[in-house]
Amino acid sequence: MNIKTILTAAVFGIGSVVAAVSAHAADKKVVVAYQTDALPSSVAIANGEFSKETGYEIDFRKFNSGAEIFAAIASGDVQVGYVGSSPFAAATSRGLAVKAFYLSSISGIDEALVVRNGSGIDSLSDLKGKKLAAAPVSTDHYQLLALIKSLGLTERDVQVFAIPQPEIVAAFNRGDLDGGFVWDPALTELKKSGKVLVTSKEVAEKGAPTFSAWVAASKFSDDNPEFLKKFAGVINKYYASFAKDKAAWNTDSANAKELAKLLGGTAEQQASALNNLNLLTPQVQASAEWLGGGEKSGAAKILKDTAQFLKDQGKVTEVLPSYAEFVTADALAGASN
């Protein structure tokens, strides 16, 4: 073999290695969608720990609602996202293949119906004839409709507007709305000139429980199990810190300041919002009660019940026989509290 042949072979060999490395690097990229909710794990978005621990190049993108995130997943623009159970039930009922691999929180006081001072609403019995709003197809929208139904009212008795949270805040402040079912930062804003009438936790106790979760497109989930496990591990770390070291999450903490920088508002508001969360330990999440029970899992049951409610309301056309395929405890296997 002459020198020219050797050099040519070497160049092609190097080119093949570079191509292989580039292809591998491309496989290590993922787009992750998040919302403005205050979560302990959001600090890992701000400081880059998710990328560091998973070894993936992560493009984090902020969205205003779960419905928007599911649209992005359906288009292929997003592979992983943080969503609520109502848009989750709607998306899967319409055929979108996704899996919940981590429950961020369940119905708590971090979401609530706030009514405007001067609206004439002092109790739930005063809602008839009023103008209320929630983000489209959100867990808040679902719970607002469920609340109205539980009171024996319909959308003919109460005007319900499905509009994005920034528009809810603006309309509320103008006096165009009597109330809004919202989460932070809108929740904090509405409280400035209103009062909490009922919380998500209280609506759940009336028969309409909800949850928020990290979900992944099913193909991405199947192809990247180690990524999801490491991603869940980062969340576990921050949730454990929040549970065991309250000083690390108070108003003056670096964590609260990081959240404010990422999500908006003040460190004080973020620290307060965190205390409103209703969090589950990894072991409880992985149990049959929530993600690990297949057909009988709590998450699958909530999805099906929510889908049935949405169908009754004309929001979706079909309820699937089972929602078990949309939840998995695989990423939490072996996790400790």
Descriptive tags:
about 325 residues, alpha/beta, D-Maltodextrin-Binding Protein, domain 2, 2 domains, five-stranded mixed beta sheet, about 45% helix, about 15% strand, globular, signal, Peri-bd_TauA
Brief summary of the model shown:
The protein has 337 residues and is of the alpha/beta class. 45% of the residues lie in helices and 17% in strands. Strands 2-1-3-10-4 form a 5-stranded mixed β-sheet. It has a 5-stranded mixed β-sheet with strand order 7-6-8-5-9, with helices on both faces.
The proportion of strand residues reads 15-25%
Number of helices: 15
What structural class results from the helix and strand content? Answer: alpha/beta
CATH architecture term of the largest domain: 3-Layer(aba) Sandwich
Mean pLDDT: 91
Keywords: Signal
Organism: Aliirhizobium cellulosilyticum
Subcellular location: Periplasm
Domain Solute-binding protein family 3/N-terminal: 29-245
Give a structural overview.
Belongs to the bacterial solute-binding protein SsuA/TauA family. Residues 29-245 form the Solute-binding protein family 3/N-terminal domain. Residues 1-25 form the signal peptide. It is found in: Periplasm. This is Taurine transport system substrate-binding protein. This protein is an alpha/beta fold and 337 residues long. The chain has two domains: 29-107 and 210-332, D-Maltodextrin-Binding Protein, domain 2, CATH 3.40.190; 111-206, Periplasmic binding protein-like II (D-Maltodextrin-Binding Protein, domain 2). 45% of the residues lie in helices and 17% in strands. The protein has helices at residues 3-27, 42-46, 49-54, 66-75, 85-93, 139-150, 165-174, 186-191, 200-205, 218-223, 225-244, 254-263, 267-274, 282-286, 298-312, and strands spanning 29-34, 57-62, 80-84, 98-106, 111-116, 131-134, 159-162, 179-183, 194-199, 211-217. It has a five-stranded mixed β-sheet. The radius of gyration is 22 Å and the shape is globular. It starts with a helix and ends in a 25-residue tail after the last helix. Mean pLDDT is 91; it is low at 1-26.
